[in-house]
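Regression test case RT-17, inverse folding.

Input:
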């Protein structure tokens, strides 16, 4: 688990193709690795990766074919910056929100504009994720825990303050950039719980929470 509070900005130093999947090499910059062991998890642009090799200034991690297909990691080039966060430890402050490091989809930056000292971004999410994104709710963008400032369909807005711009890779975002999205864990589990006994049935095109289902559960 993670908090979505970025601890450092690293850089991809190499990507080795390994029979359909890949081995990533990440330089961690100022993020110390003294408390990291082989097998530990590090969120890399919001993707939970397992450390398979350590060196003084970085780590290596295997990336499966599914992860390459469903996240932006496969499109990284050597030198590209990445957000980094080590796994949450018990007793540590939860400054953001609970983040699993399991990316739900890839979004696209539609617009970037200045708003006083902040930058406002408008981002388009995959249509199937729109129901999980709420005004003033939490969303994770490339591993950073952020507050949704506005929603219109599957498009939402973020207001990013100077500190966040300095401490994450968001300062580099321009229109057209692809970003990893993880929706709020509570929203995902709540939807599943509301399905009740239907959760055990095979998926259909009607799967999901509907007004009819909510009515049968006592919501009016």
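Golden output:
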């Amino acid at each position: 688990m993670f908090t979505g509070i970025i601890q450092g900005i690293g850089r991809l130093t190499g990507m080795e193709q390994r029979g359909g999947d890949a081995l990533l090499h990440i330089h961690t910059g100022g993020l110390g690795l003294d408390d990291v062991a082989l097998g530990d998890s590090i969120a890399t642009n919001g993707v939970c990766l397992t450390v398979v090799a350590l060196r003084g200034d970085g780590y290596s991690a295997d990336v499966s074919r599914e992860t390459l297909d469903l996240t932006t990691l496969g499109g990284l080039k050597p030198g590209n910056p990445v957000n980094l966060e080590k796994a949450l430890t018990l007793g540590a402050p939860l400054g953001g929100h609970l983040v699993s490091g399991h990316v739900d989809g890839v979004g696209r930056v539609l617009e970037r504009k200045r708003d006083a000292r902040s930058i406002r971004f408008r981002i388009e999410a995959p249509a199937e994720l729109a129901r999980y994104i709420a005004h003033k709710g939490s969303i994770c963008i490339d591993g950073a825990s952020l507050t949704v400032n506005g929603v219109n369909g599957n498009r939402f807005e973020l207001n990013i303050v100077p500190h966040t711009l300095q401490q994450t890779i968001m300062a580099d975002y321009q229109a057209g950039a692809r970003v990893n999205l993880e929706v709020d864990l509570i929203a995902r589990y709540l939807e599943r719980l509301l399905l009740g006994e239907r959760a055990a049935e095979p998926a259909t095109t009607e799967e999901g929470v509907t007004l009819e289902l909510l009515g049968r559960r006592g919501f009016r």
